[in-house]
UniProtKB/TrEMBL annotation:
It comes from Streptomyces erythrogriseus. This is Thioesterase domain-containing protein. Belongs to the thioesterase family. Residues 25-243 form the Thioesterase domain. InterPro entries: AB_hydrolase_fold, TEII, Thioesterase.
Length: 246
């Protein structure tokens, strides 16, 4: 891998400016209802690969920014922010619904003639043409509120009402975008895809992920120990998987 000069300027899309010294970058896309803090337990670098959590508008430190509305809008805004950072090898990691805008961003980048990632890692998310099967898209607001409470408790925090309502607001807006997303047929990618399945995931089975086979010439499946949200704890098995191709 080679590195060249770059100017890393502050951007609201990244919680910290990407380092001009990095030899490679891993851009990380959070799941619906969450933000870049989903990766707060991850190290800032994995070997020589810089970890760059992406911050979507309408949450956390971008709560005052208008929500992106659609994955097309999200990919368009992110492509502009990414374009000066692609002069060295990079990859995308998207967990759950975060894998869908990651996929759409790769398509947009390559359509513009910009460098494609070395790899797209998708975690716990069926392929784009199967995305409408997500059980949470059919939930009522009360059911989603209960999901938010359960998630917060699962992270070892007693949920306050204001915390739950804020999380629910973000989740409802993200789910509106996820519910509006439709891709009837696969649009193949110019890069390999690595599909990550969590062995103890109660909602997404390994069979649910097979649709990704139509999205690239090289599609690899990896089964990791843990549940749906255990990626947040940066388990060693996951980190080794993310860096072994570089």
């Amino acid at each position: 891998m080679t590195s060249g000069p770059t100017t890393a300027t502050a951007s609201p899309w990244f919680v910290r400016p990407p380092s001009p010294e990095a030899t490679a970058r891993l851009f990380c896309f959070p799941f619906s209802g969450s933000g870049a803090s989903a990766f707060s337990a991850w190290p800032a670098a994995l070997d020589d690969v810089e970890v760059c959590p992406v911050q979507f508008p309408g949450r956390e430190n971008r709560l005052a920014h208008p929500h992106y509305g659609t994955y097309d809008n999200l990919a368009a805004g992110l492509t502009e922010a990414l374009s000066p950072l692609l002069e060295r090898p990079y990859a995308f990691f998207g967990h759950c619904a975060g894998a869908l805008p990651a996929y759409e961003t790769v398509l947009r980048l390559t359509a513009l003639g910009l460098p494609a990632p070395e790899c797209l890692f998708v975690s716990g998310q069926p392929a784009p043409h199967d995305a409408s099967r997500d059980r949470m898209l059919t939930m009522t607001e009360d059911e989603l509120r209960a999901e938010v409470e359960a998630f917060i408790r699962g992270r070892g925090i007693e949920p306050r009402p204001d915390m739950v309502e804020l999380g629910l607001m973000v989740l409802l807006r993200d789910h509106a975008a996820a519910g509006a997303y439709r891709r009837q047929e696969p649009a193949p990618l110019p890069c390999p895809v690595v599909v990550l399945h969590w062995r103890d995931d109660p909602d997404v089975s390994l069979d649910d992920l097979q649709g990704w086979l139509a999205y690239a010439d090289s599609v690899e499946f990896r089964v990791l120990d843990g549940g749906h949200h255990d990626f947040m704890d940066a388990p060693d098995e996951l980190l080794k998987t993310l860096t072994r191709r570089w």
